[in-house]
Amino acid sequence: MVNRIDPNTQQLTGRLRSSARELGFEAFGVAEAGALQSYSAPVRRWLEQGHHGRMGYMENHFDKRIDPRLLLPGARSVVVVGQNYYLPTGQPEHCSYLIARYAYGRDYHRVMKNKLHQLASSLAEMAGEHPFRVFADSAPVLERAWAIEAGLGNTGKNSCLIIPGRGSFYFLGELITAVELAPTPRAVKDPCRSCTRCMEACPTQAILAPGVLDARKCISYLTIELKDATPPPYRGRCRGWVFGCDICQEVCPHNHRPEPHNEKALAPLSPISTWDNARWENCSREEFVKYFKKGDSPIARISHEKLMDNLRASGAGC
Predict the structure, then answer these.
(1) Which of 137, 190, 276, 296 is catalytic?
(2) Among 13, 196, 269, 270, which lies 20 to 30 A Cα-Cα from 91?
(3) C-alpha span between 219 and 203 (Å, rounded)
């Protein structure tokens, strides 16, 4: 027996998709809220092998990561959206210290959550007040898994979500709601096939196998999540990256010609767009607080001491 989707539910989903597009979300999908049983074993195995390094928070609230109904009792739908954050470059050509594109502008957590709350308000106008929660890389939610379930795309060998025709330079956000919406079809195509460019390009060989990332070797982990100094085996091997890394995305064929975003809140902050090597190297603790902590920059996630060590360990110019 075929389960038919209520036309009214389908229409509501279409209207919500239009609202998401008006808010600047270029990708949109819906999945039925439930337990992600097929993802449970791989995630547990990844954690047991210690590939998460010192990100101990990833071990917490495992059941909630698998089942969003534990985050929102009565949840019926998981809405997943994607926000493009790509810019060809936001840094001066003469600066050899590199910042990952996602960190060019204001803290994306706040930008995404603000827009997701607006999307929840739009849904309330359409379907009435509803219990909901919004997330943007800020809670025990398997974002890429839900993006796959909602039909946005599939993960590549580098573990990034690849959106067909758009690439992987996207923030993901979730609106978990008690409103019943029509699920969108899953994308079943393997985005990588025989391509291994990301695995070959990683300077620290962090991609152990297709879809298996050892965070302890990843430049993003080494420059952000690892609060201590970069370990000796990786010093000088970061190719100039001092906060995050885009290498595996830059070499991906799906990002051959990505469209630049036009989200004003994600425009490069002044230090990113103007500082040269000497300016970075001479950034004082007071300036760090002024430009990054008070400037609402993602770079505020690390300390001034960590930034200085990242500069020394980056291998810029090598």
Answers:
(1) 137
(2) 196
(3) 8
Q: Is 18 among the domain residues? A: yes
Beta carbons within 8 Å of 285's beta carbon, 6+ residues apart: 304
Cα dihedral: 76, 161, 241, 298 (round 10):
-20
pLDDT at 6: 75
User: Is residue 133 domain-shared with residue 17, that is, in the same domain?
Assistant: yes
Alpha-carbon gap, residue 225 to 222, rounded angstroms:
6
pTM for the model: 0.94
Angle between helices 7-22 and 108-127 (to 10 degrees): 140
Residues 173 and 201 both lie in one domain:
no
What pLDDT does residue 138 have?
81
136 with 271, same domain: the answer is no
**Which residue range(s) make up the domain with 216?**
197-313
Annotated catalytic, 137?
A: yes
How far apart CA 270 and CA 65 sit, in angstroms, is 37
Q: Is 11's pLDDT higher than 80? A: yes
